[in-house]
Amino acid sequence: MSGAARSSIAQDAPITRRQAIAGVVALAAYPSAARAANASDATTKQALDTAMTLDPPAALARLAGVSADGASPGARLDLAAARAGLTIDQRLANPTLQPAERFEWQMRRITGDTVQLAAVRRDLETRRATLAAQADAAFDALGVPAGTTGARFERLWRDPRFLYPDDAAGRDAAVAGMRATLAAIRPKLPGLFGTLPPACLDVDVRALDAAEIAAGKGGYRILPAPDVRGTYVVDLQRIARRPRFSLPSVVAHELLPGHMIQMPLEARAAPHPLRKRYTAPLAEGWATYAEMLMADCGLFASAADRLGHIHWMLFRTCRGLADLALHVDGRAPDAVLGDLAQRQGEPTYFASFDNDLATIARTPAVRAAEGWVPLRIEQEARRPGQRRRVHHKLLDHGPIRL
User: Fold this and answer.
1) By three-state DSSP, how is residue 7 classified?
2) How far apart are CA 8 and CA 11, in angstroms?
3) Would the pTM of this model clear 0.90, i.e. be above it?
4) Which domain holds residue 59?
5) Are the CB atoms for 326 and 361 separated by under 8 Å?
6) Which Pfam families does this UniProt record tie to the protein (predicted)?
7) Strands 203-207 and 6-7, bridge-based pairing
8) Which of 78, 96, 114 is the last residue of a domain?
9) 212-233 pLDDT, tens per residue?
10) One domain, residues 350 and 269
11) Which residues pair with 351 in a beta bridge?
12) Rounded to whole angstroms, what are the CA distances from 301 to 174, 297, 305?
C-alpha cells in the first residue's frame, strides 16, 4: 500500500500529528455535493494560499475583497473560517490579555466565535458529575467495592474477569470482540445518517503484526479508498492494559461512526489548510461524539461496557478541565495531576497522566475544546428531528466552526 493511503495516527494523538489526512476516496454516492471546480473557487483558493504566507493583518487585507458569490459551499466555509480565525489571531497578539480572556479567545480561534468560557466550564463540570454518578451505579452493579471513582476504576482494570490472556489467542479474542462491536454498530447507521458511501463502510480491525511491532509501530489507521479496505490497526502489545470493556468505545471512535466516516468525507471535501487550522478540534470532537451517539443507541448494554465507555468520556472531560485548571485557574501541575488520578483512576493506554498533562501545558485550550465540542454537538443533535441534519451539516463539506 502506498504511503498516501495510510494514516499512522494513534487514537487521540495530539492534534499536530493529525493534520494530514491520507487517502483519496471515491464518495460520489454520498448525498452531498462535491466542491465544484469553478472560477470563484479558484479565486478564493488563490487568495487563501496567499493569506497563509502573510501575518494576520496583511492576510485579512488580502481576503477583504474576496467575494464568496458563486463559490461552492466548501469554498465559502474556507473563506469564513479563515477570516474568523485570522481576526482572532490579531486579537491574541495583544500582550495585555488576562489568562481567562486569552484562553477564551484561544478556544474561539479553533472552535467558533460564540464560545463563552463560563459555559464551557459549566458544561464540562456538569458532564463530569453525570459521568461519575453513572460510573458509581455501574460499579455497584458489578460489586466493585466503594471508593473514589478513580480507585474503583483501578480495581476494575485488574479484575481477571475482564482481562484477555497475554498470548496470541488473547489478542485474537480481543480483535474478534472488536469486530463483533463493529457488526452491532452497522445496523444503526442508516437511521442516523441515511445513505453513506460504500467506502466508508468497508472497514475492519486487526492487531499489529509481528513486523510492525518489531519496527516500533503503535496503533494506526488505514483510510478506505476505492481499492483499499479501511482498517484500524489496534495496538494490543500490552494487552493487560486493554481489558475487554475498554474496547467497544474504541470501535465507535476509531471506526464507525467515528473517524472512518469523518476522515474520508473530510478528504473528499478537501478543506483549505486555513480552515483546518481554525477547526482543528472538530475531528476529535466528532469521534468522541460518535461514542456518545452509540451509547445513546444502547451499544454499551452491560455494566462493564458502560464503564469502559464512561472511562473514555471521563478521560476527555477531565483533561478539558485540567486545561482550564492549568491555564485559567493557575493551579499547580501536581494538584491537577492528583485530580486526574482521583477522578479517572487509570490512565489511557496511550498516555500516562504525566505525559498527558505535559501536552496540555504546551497546548492551551486544545483539550478543553476537544472535550467541549462533542457536548455542543450533542446539544444540537438532541433537538427533535435534528440529529441526521446535524450529522450532515458537520460532515458533508468538511469541518465547520460551531
Assistant:
1) strand
2) 10
3) yes
4) 35-96
5) yes
6) DUF885
7) unpaired
8) 96
9) 999 999 999 999 987 899 999 9
10) yes
11) 348
12) 18, 10, 7
